[in-house]
TrEMBL record:
InterPro entries in the cross-refs: ATP_synth_asu-like_sf, Lumazine-bd, Lumazine-bd_dom, Riboflavin_synthase-like_b-brl
EC number: 2.5.1.9
Domain of life assignment: Bacteria
Lumazine-binding repeat copies, ranges: 1-97, 98-194
Keyword field: Repeat, Transferase
Name the UniProt record assigns to this protein: Riboflavin synthase
GO function terms (MF aspect): riboflavin synthase activity
Pfam families: Lum_binding
Domain (Lumazine-binding) ranges: 1-97, 98-194
Length: 199
């Protein structure tokens, strides 16, 4: 489980795509990987993955076909900046919101605009997720916990404060770029109950 409070300054340093599987190595800071162990969970752009190997400043993961199909990693390239987050400690402070690391879909940036010191992003809502995104609710974009400013007409908006712009890869998004979306886990359960459970 994660909180959506990511660390910046990481990038893809090695990438091997074989049909619908991916092996990826990420370079990050030694402080981020302190006490890392094989088998630990790390979220990369919001996707929970398992550490298979590591060095003092790198870690390697493998993605199965389901992850390939549901995330933006199928378009990844060496050098891409990524947001990373270690799994939460039970003894730690809980901030952000509950993020599982299970991506619901990829969505596209519709527009971006500066509003004083904030950067506002407007993104498309997939039809099957329209009942899981609401104004003042929470979403995770590339693993970043954000508050929905408004949601209407199959679109929603979020705002990035200067810290988020500097510490994540969201500020570099251009119109048409895809991001990984995870809706609020509470919204999933409410939506499922309203339609009568799993189908």
């Amino acid at each position: 489980m994660f909180s959506g409070l990511v660390s910046g300054g990481s990038h893809i340093s090695e990438l091997k795509i074989n049909q619908h599987t991916i092996k990826m190595t990420v370079t990050t800071s030694a402080s981020f990987l302190k006490d890392i162990q094989t088998g630990d969970s790390i979220a990369i752009n919001g996707c929970c993955l398992t550490v298979e190997a590591f060095t003092p400043t790198t870690f390697t993961v493998t993605m199965m076909p389901q992850t390939f199909k549901k995330t933006s990693f199928k378009n990844a390239q060496v050098g891409d900046a990524v947001n990373v987050e270690r799994a939460m400690l039970a003894s730690g402070r809980f901030e952000g919101h509950i993020v599982t690391g299970h991506i619901d879909d990829t969505i596209s940036l519709v527009s971006r605009q500066a509003n004083e010191n904030a950067l506002e992003l407007i993104l498309a809502i997939p039809k099957h997720l329209t009942n899981q995104i609401v104004s003042q609710g929470s979403v995770a974009l590339n693993g970043v916990s954000l508050t929905v400013m408004w949601a209407k007409d199959n679109q929603f908006a979020v705002g990035l404060i200067p810290h988020t712009q500097a510490e994540t890869n969201l500020a570099s998004l251009q119109v048409g770029d895809e991001v990984n979306l995870e809706t609020d886990i509470l919204a999933k359960y409410v939506a499922s109950n309203l339609k009568g459970g799993p189908k």
